Fold this sequence. Notes:
By secondary structure, the chain is an alpha+beta fold. The chain has one domain. It has helices at 46-52, 58-73, 86-94, 114-125; strands at 5-14, 24-32, 37-42, 101-103, 107-111. Strands 1, 2, 3, 4 and 5 form a five-stranded antiparallel beta sheet that branches. The mean pLDDT is 95.
Amino acid sequence: MSARLSYQYVVLRCVPRVDREEFVNVGVVLHCQAADYLDVAWQVDRERLAALFPALDLDRVCDALAFVEGVCAGDERGGVAAGTPIGQRFGFLRAPKSTVLQPGPVHGGVTEDPARQLERLLHTLVG
């Protein structure tokens, strides 16, 4: 029998106009402390975002998501935050921000495979 591991995740939201509080889900960050796992999966539907928010710089959204990838991976794309322990990196990524890319509330669950759970969450919550 495989071990059941607890995890936490946040949905990453593209929020083009913070004042209107409108958003589109574009990614998920999943942290599983027991497995020493932190990763992001994302998908930007450029046509949908361009239709909803014509003035949005879609390359800026993708750059912000690449930064999140760097933080998760612990590489240079994530700047200073990438050099901290995994738990602190997740704390950094889940903190509220007033930028075009914002995390939603923290949720949790249990899984036997954090990577597979991340893909499930991406499919369910982002599309």
